[in-house]
Amino acid sequence: MRANIPNISKEWDRHSISDCAAAAIASAVLQDVGIVNDCDSTIVIDRSKIRRERQKVRNELQSHLASNLTVNEEKIIMVIKLNVPAYTLAPFCPESSEHYVKIIFTKHDKVLTAIQQLLGEIKFVNAPAAASPNNLSALWCRSSAAISPLNVQVRTISNKKVVEDVSPTIQNSKNNLNQKLQSPAINYEIQKIKDKMMESTIKIKKVIQVVSKKAESKNLMKDVEEVNKNQIERMTQNNVQKAHEIMENSQVKTNKNIKVLNNIDREIITESNISEIKKNTNISMQHALSLVKETNNADCSKPKFASVSDLDDIKQESRKKQNGNQSDKIDNKSKGKHDVTECNHPHVNQNDQQQKNQMIKNVQEKQDIDFNISNSLNETKTDCSKLKKFCRD
Length: 393
Prior knowledge:
The protein is mainly α.
């Protein structure tokens, strides 16, 4: 059954009929009227249908009456009927009163009232008069209003009793509390609390001093670290400059030694050159002797012997040839080296000895220079290793 039944649901609420009883009454009425019979039983009213219809009607009434309520939530209380049979409350408000009971529903709905100054009248229909002031309970109130008793004046129809003001009792309770607070025991406890507070403040001050000292020490450590870093950077810069100077000095020394070696290499006469010189001198001597023999054999009647001047001329020519051949060979082999020094001495053996001595001296000088170069390189290596260790440290 999809039809609405608002009027029946209102009456059931008004007379406090339960859902089960309402469903039984409604189904019996439908059968008596003839709407429901054995052939047609599509129309059914059960408990759930009644419950839904009641809730719809209540929501409509609440929405309609709540639109007329313009009171703050803090000034609203809830009136509930306690220890009384389930009877309906009906509103009865005089037209001249400003503060009155605003909304009253049945026992299923709770009563909303304005409590700024509750001076309205409530009429209890079929209810005893003794159940008026004791059945009020305050909700949605502030803490002060909830703790202190309510200053309420209520009038009923049967007995027009007025509840007296309760402000003197509140004042007495305040005076009692002040007397208790002024007692020596409470003062002693308060003094203890103050002493503890002082001790805690002293401890806090000490902690603050310790923390400030630690902060100052940390700042000093930071300053020391910065100074150490600056000193280390300066030391490293000085060491790097020294290393560069050492490297430059070693490079200059090596360049000088290389120049000396190049100059020595130009003046060195090898053993092969000496042997060639000896061969050429022997050939020239043989050639000179052959010329002397030819001149002697040419005219036997008048033998002519070569003079000393002739021999000297022949030796000079042979030496010139020898020097020319030797310079060509040295230019082809050494590419840029100086010519072999001329030997103007008449005795070849003495020149050979001098050349050998010169070669020995040159070799010794070269060995000394190599030794100096190796020493300078070793010094530079040791300096570099020291710098690396210092930088690592």
